[in-house]
């Protein structure tokens, strides 16, 4: 087994739900024993997908005390770098040093058009942004000419150096994370995708390096009373069809999954089946000293009460077994 295993709840996206639901879910995740709560970002989606992760995490900070608050991911090239650094610093301070800032490129062409950003520049902007955010975190003046920042300063500074993760599937994106970031987040935890990322990361990062974290998002349905599992499965399938269509023809999952992308959940069933499935994911990452699973726990949206019940049930029936060594 891995040396350190942390388990997060997410990715909360706001689809079909009230943004205030995130605050209740973050609190429920902390009460259930999760280590982190994750939100993500898209723009202009008809299903109400969350467009502004950091303000939501600021609200979550006010009702939690322990749980890490994470973005998985901020679509970094769409944000002004200084504004992003300032917002991140404030969320980190408001939370007492609990922000984990995951950054990514995104894939939706309409988002780049809406923000007037040339997609051809996105990789270079992301690389420059990692260095700029680290410099911004010192509270001292800095410059980042590649981002047109000259002698600027972020005050107040964050409570501590904010961990920076990068997401992505393409070889270049994975290698970038290994070279520059504190962690890499695989947004779709299928075996082929996880193993492909491992092969690339091992060329630039020692798996035993305690300063680097392997993050994997696993889409999960827990079949148990009171959780609306059937409705959750059906709703996820409907939503994913639209997002898979948006990615069609792009280098997102190409060569990493067998056949066409599927909208099926990755792990589902009763508590024992879910525990077994998640343990298998962890075992596939046994070479890495630090692993962070992000459980994309599917709910019967937009029923907040049912979602809170499901989080509590997961905390009671699944989490304790993941934290114990396999017998």
UniProtKB/TrEMBL annotation:
Fetch the Gene3D superfamilies from UniProt: Luciferase-like domain (3.20.20.30)
Name the Pfam families on file: Bac_luciferase
Q: Which residues are in the Luciferase-like domain?
A: 11-251
> Which InterPro entries did the record assign?
Bact_Lucif_Oxidored, Luciferase-like_dom, Luciferase-like_sf
Q: Which superkingdom, per the lineage?
A: Bacteria
Know the name of this protein?
A: LLM class flavin-dependent oxidoreductase
Organism taxonomic ancestry: Bacteria, Bacillati, Actinomycetota, Actinomycetes, Pseudonocardiales
């Amino acid at each position: 087994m891995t040396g350190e295993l942390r388990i997060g709840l997410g990715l909360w996206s706001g689809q079909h739900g009230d943004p205030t639901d995130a605050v209740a879910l973050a609190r429920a995740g902390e009460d259930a024993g999760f280590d982190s709560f994750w939100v993500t970002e898209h723009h202009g989606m008809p299903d109400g997908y969350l467009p502004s992760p950091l303000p939501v995490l600021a609200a979550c900070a006010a009702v939690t005390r322990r749980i890490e608050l994470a973005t998985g991911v901020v679509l970094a090239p769409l944000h002004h770098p200084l504004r992003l650094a300032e917002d991140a610093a404030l969320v980190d301070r408001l939370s007492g040093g609990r922000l984990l800032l995951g950054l990514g490129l995104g894939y939706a062409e309409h988002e780049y058009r809406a923000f007037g950003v040339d997609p051809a520049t996105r990789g270079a902007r992301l690389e420059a942004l990692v260095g700029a955010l680290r410099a911004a975190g010192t509270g001292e003046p800095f410059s980042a000419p590649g981002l047109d920042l000259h002698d600027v300063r972020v005050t107040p500074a964050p409570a501590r150096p904010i961990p920076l993760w990068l997401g992505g599937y393409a070889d270049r994106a994975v290698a970038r994370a290994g070279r520059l970031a504190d962690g890499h987040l695989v947004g779709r935890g299928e075996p082929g995708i996880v193993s492909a990322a491992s092969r690339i990361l091992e060329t630039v990062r020692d798996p035993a390096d305690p300063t680097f974290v392997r993050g994997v998002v696993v889409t999960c349905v827990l079949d148990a009373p009171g959780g609306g599992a059937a409705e959750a499965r059906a709703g996820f399938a409907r939503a994913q069809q639209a997002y898979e269509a948006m990615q069609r023809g792009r280098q997102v999952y190409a060569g990493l999954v067998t056949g066409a992308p599927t909208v099926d959940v990755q792990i589902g069933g009763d508590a024992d089946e879910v525990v077994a499935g998640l343990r298998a994911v962890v075992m596939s990452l046994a070479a890495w000293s630090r692993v962070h699973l992000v459980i994309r726990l599917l709910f019967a949206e937009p029923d907040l009460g049912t979602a809170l019940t499901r989080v509590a049930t997961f905390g009671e029936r699944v989490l304790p077994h993941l934290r114990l060594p396999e017998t």
